[in-house]
Write the C-alpha cells for this entry.
Amino acid sequence: MTTSEKTSSPSGFTSKLHLDKHISRRFNEELEQVRTLVMKMGELVEQQVNDGLSAVLNADATLAEQVIERDKKVNSMELEIDEYCTQILARRQPAASDLRLIVSVIKSITDLERMGDEAVKFGKNAIKLARGNFAEEEGARPLVELKHLGKHISETLNTALIAYAQMDTDAAYKIIENDNIIDEEFDNISRLLVTKMMENPREIKNALRVTWCARALERIGDHTTNLCEYIVYLVEGKDVRHGNMN
Amino acid sequence: MNTIDIKQNEPSQVELNQVELTQTVGNIYADDAKMSIRNANVHYGDKQAIHNVSLDLAKNQVTALIGPSGCGKSTFLRCLNRMNDTIDICRVTGQLMLDGEDIYAKELDPVLLRARVGMVFQKPNPFPKSIYDNVAYGARIHGLTNNKTELDEIVETSLQKAGLFNEVKDRLKDPGTGLSGGQQQRLCIARTIAVSPEVILMDEPASALDPIATAIIEELIDELKEKYTIAIVTHSMQQAARVSQHTAYFHMGKLVEMGKTEDIFTRPSHKLTENYITGRFG
C-alpha cells in the first residue's frame, strides 16, 4: 500500500488521538485539517525525495528541474501549516494531547521542509552529474551503493509517514533504534568514494557530487528519525530525543 | 517522595464511565505540606458530595482545584477552613490537618481557624463600610491591636500587599463598594491578609473580572505565595495553568488526579483529566 493510500484514511490518527471527541465540533475540524495538511506535505516530500534520487541515479536533468521547482510548494506548505498552528494556539489554547499535537506538527514540518531541501540538493547534483559525464566504470559501484542507501531511506521514510498517519509508536521506535544502520551505510559509501578519488583524481568532482547526495540521504534519515520521535512524544508524552529512551 | 498507584493499563472510555473511581492517579504528597487532608468525606444529608479525598497543600505554593461544575471542588475548599460548619446538614469526616493540627478538633475555635485559613470568594463582597474599615475589621475583632498607629500600619501594609494601596491611599474613608470589581476583589484580599493568615483559599477569585483585573489578581497570587500557602478553585484551565504549581482534578466528588501543573497540562495520566482539560466528551 502506498503512503498516500494509508495516510489519506484518518482512522488511526484521529481515533488514537480522539480528535473527533471535542465538545467543539469546529475544533475537531481544525485539528483534522492540521492532520490532512501534514500528511499532504509528507506525501509531497516523499515524492520529492524519490524523484530527486531517481534523477541522480538516472542522470535525468528534466526530472531534476521538476524537483527543484516543486520545492516551492513544499516551502509554501510549511508556511501554511505554521500559520494554521499559530492560529490554533492563539484561539484554542490547546492542552495535553492537543497541545502535543500542535507542538509536534510545528516541529515535524520543519523536518519535512528540510528533507525537501535535501531533495533539491539531489536535483542540483543530478543536473551536474548529467553534464559531468561520470565515467560508467568509475561511477558504477558508488551509484549502486547510493541506490541501495536511497532504497533504504525511501522505505524508512514511507514507513515513518505511515506510522505518523496511524500514530503507530511500535513502528516509530523501530525506526529510531535503526538509525545507526543508515549512518553505517553512509560511512561505507564515503569510504568507497574516497578510494575512488584517490585512484582517479580526475573524477574527484563527480565523486564529491555523489558523496553530497549520500550525505543528503543520511540527513533525510536523521529527519525521518526526528519525525518518529515526535510520534512517540505525541502519543506517549515522552521526549525520546537525543537517545533519551527512558 | 511517595506516589499513589498509577494505573498502568488505561481503561477505555466506555470502561471509565462505569468504573468506580477509588484511586487517585499521580502524586498527592508534598515534601513540605502546610495542610494534609486524608480520606475526607463530605455529606449533605444523605447525599455524599466528597468521596475519600486525600491531598497535601504544599507550603508557599499555589494548588489549583479544577473540575466540572458540581464536582465538589468548592465544597472541598470550604472544608479547609470549616466554612461548611455553617450548613446544618453538612457533615465532614476524615483527617484534615493544618501544620499537623486537626482543624476539626472539638477544642478548636473555627473563628480563629478562619483567621489562619482565610478565604476570598467569587464575587467581591466588601462590607458596606469604608475602604479603611474593611481592612481594619478583622484586625479589630480578633484583637490584633487597639493602637490606632498600629492599625493604620496593618491597613496600609495589607493594601500594599494586595497591590491596591497606591490606587486608594487618598480615599481610604470612601466606601469599599464604590471601587471597581477588580479593586473590590483586591480589597477583599487585603481584608484577608490583614489578619495574617497562613493559608488563603480562593474560590474563583477572578471569574467576575475583566482580563486586565484578572491579570492583576493572578500577578498578586504569584507574589502572595511567597508568604502564604494558596489553594484556588478555578473554572479557567488557563488560569490554573498560569498561577499554580500543583493541580488537582475533581470529578463527581472524587479526586481523579493530582500532580505538578506542568505535567497535568501537557501529559495528564488519567483519561478523565485529559478529556476535561482538552474539552472532550466524557
The longest strand of chain B covers residues 33-44.
